[in-house]
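To make this tangible, we now present a fold written out as tokens:
***
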Amino acid sequence: MHSELSQRPVVPTFVGREPILDCNLEVQAWEISYRDGLDELDSGNESEFSTAQAFWNTFMELGVENVAPDWKAFLPVSREFLLGDCPEIFPPHRLALVLNASLLEDEEVSSRLRELKSANYQLVLDDFDRSSAGEFSDLIDAVKVDVEGVGSDEAVRIAAKLDGRGVRRIAKNLSSYEEFEACRRCGYEAFQGRFLSRPQVVAGGRILHAGISRTRMLAAINSSDSSIDDLVELIEQDVALSFKLLKYVNSPLVGLRSTVESVRHAVMLLGQRWLRTWTNLALLASIEGRPQAVFDLAIVRARMCENLGRLSEAERPEVFFTAGLFSTLDALLSRPLDEVLQELPLTDELNGALLRLEGPVGQTLACTLAYEVADWERVNLGALTPEEIRDAYIDSLRWAADLRNERA
């Protein structure tokens, strides 16, 4: 099958990922989503090779290390994929196979699943509900429950039904921290959903206000009235921020030939625009009490928006970066976005992009947000090709990983 796939023409493959989090909101795996070409979106018919070829393009050409570095990849699979030899391309500790219930009724597939199970591949049953609680195969290692689809109360009942069955319970499509907490309390061990990108509400209905001092510093950094001297003074007053700046500019990510020994030297070399961009990034990264996954989301959004801005030949791609970064302020600061933006001296262009997805910056942010949730029908931006948009995303993953390693 490998040779057949490698001889077929390469088609644009959109590939995305969604974090699978543990009870402490740390990433434990990534679920991979992909689409084998835009022209198949409305057909409803996938070719015999569609899933397998999408897999091949994604992991052999783009590299699994770029999509799911250091973590297991959860991959939704088809009958054709399972009956071929694609699963064995990667070792069991890197790949979990996500199955629809209908596949378990296929004798040929069941036999193949037993082979994969004996080779220690993890098998995950998708869209599990209570009606099938007594029927699922002993091959299954974990089940995913669609909380949005079945409702929070039913998700709790399903968890109780699965007590003692020896399977991991994964709650997906969580839309709020309240749903996350309810599922965590009743025994779910892993979690997926958009709740991570939303403000966290604490007991009594209050929104948790994090990083108030950081908000004030963001306002000062982004003020058009702040000169280079003002920016240097602001950063030098924060020892930790100064240290991070010097560590970053002297890292291979920046690639300077000489050592930078002061904040002012860094600004003179790299410029005021660069300093604002970096400082915004560092300030948000220093907010305490928020999951690392939220900051990772901010970095990927920011870099992808910047990449798309450059590809669209925008005059100031750093504005696109800021839009992507600041689109996560509500999640990072646990405050409504419009409330935070009122405290920041941003341009009308940037405010319109962040609040209403207006203008070229807003359209770029809309494309990035659609890609983030695998809403492939909405992944388009002007004259950019699917390959260019996909590669902008993959680069953002690489860049975020490099930045995380530098911060470690």
